[in-house]
From TrEMBL:
Protein's UniProt keywords contain Transferase: yes
Molecular function as annotated in GO: phosphoribosylglycinamide formyltransferase activity
Sequence positions that bind (6R)-10-formyltetrahydrofolate: R64, M89, R90, I91, L92, N106
Source organism: Devosia ginsengisoli
Protein name: Phosphoribosylglycinamide formyltransferase
InterPro entries: Formyl_transf_N (IPR002376), Formyl_transf_N_sf (IPR036477), GART (IPR004607)
Pfam families registered for this protein in UniProt: Formyl_trans_N
Family assignment from sequence similarity: Belongs to the GART family.
Gene that encodes it: purN
Gene3D superfamilies named in the record: Formyl transferase, N-terminal domain (3.40.50.170)
Residues annotated to bind N(1)-(5-phospho-beta-D-ribosyl)glycinamide: G11, S12, N13
Reactions this protein catalyses: N(1)-(5-phospho-beta-D-ribosyl)glycinamide + (6R)-10-formyltetrahydrofolate = N(2)-formyl-N(1)-(5-phospho-beta-D-ribosyl)glycinamide + (6S)-5,6,7,8-tetrahydrofolate + H(+)
Length: 189
């Protein structure tokens, strides 16, 4: 299956997917990386790996629909079967989401349905949560509401800050995102 990754920043989950897809038996190939920020460090990493890249600022378009129409054109030009959101910090409109129904997945840094949206680590710590984690889920029009595919739990430790917790969870993100993409691309789900 041909996969595009949508990013906005660092791209460490993107890198984990690119690395996994190098295995000869991996059922997906990363064919393009699209960012809504030209300065996203992940773009340069993908380009250095010989992957097609594009960047597209929503602010340059008169409407979100027009921005997403151009994203769709780019994804179609890459013949994409599956879209992976990896730190893509824009909410996508219903038309775009529905076009990719069952073929678009996201990584979210919480044990969904807990802590949808932003600042998940701060909120988990403020609640005194004993466990926290991450979820790969299908993307549906409701923010962070699609069916979960894989989750990983980590303990919350005494003295944790949002940063230490995020670092512990990121290790698990990099482990489960490639596994979840494998399940989708192989047809297992
Ligand atoms: C990750 O924590 C991911 O769960 C969240 O945004 C962050 C992206 O990090 N959606 P990176 O760009 O993959 O390094």
């Amino acid at each position: 299956k041909r996969v595009a990754i949508l990013i906005s920043g660092r791209g460490s989950n993107m890198s984990a997917l690119i690395e996994a897809a190098r295995a000869p038996d991996y059922p997906a190939e990363i064919v393009g990386v699209l960012s809504n920020r030209a300065a996203a460090p992940g773009l340069a990493i993908a380009a250095a790996d010989g992957i097609a890249t594009a960047s597209l600022a929503q602010s340059k378009f008169p409407s979100r629909d027009m921005f997403e129409d151009v994203m769709t054109q780019i994804l179609e030009s890459w013949n994409v079967d599956i879209v992976c959101l990896a730190g893509f910090m824009r909410i996508l409109g219903d038309d775009f989401v529905n076009r990719w129904a069952g073929r678009m997945i996201n990584i979210h840094p919480s044990l969904l349905p807990l802590y949808k949206g932003l600042h998940t680590h701060e909120r988990a710590l403020a609640d005194g949560a004993k466990v926290h984690g991450c979820t790969v889920h299908f993307v549906t029009p409701g923010l962070d509401e699609g069916a979960p595919i894989l989750q990983a739990e980590v303990p919350v430790l005494p003295g944790d800050t949002p940063e230490t917790l995020a670092t512990r969870i990121l290790v698990e993100e990099h482990r489960i995102y490639p596994q979840a993409l494998r399940l989708l691309a192989s047809g297992a789900i």
